[in-house]
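Hi P.,

Sorry for the delay on this. The queue was packed all week, but I finally got your sequence through. Input first:
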Amino acid sequence: MTPERFSECLLHIRWTPINLASALQCDLSWVEALEAGNAEVPAGLAAWLETLAQCHEGAGVPTTYRGRGHE
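Then the structure:
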């Protein structure tokens, strides 16, 4: 997985590197290295992120609730 696709996957999932580090319970510095291309994204992590990103891309975000407040 390229650093560009890594970042793109996080955008589709709506995660920051901090969110991913929290989910994986790993060091933020490692996630930042993956994002910068200074470390290789492990195949298993790449596959997982691709699966999540494709799910989010396909599902989209519902627009029905925009502007809605607590009534």
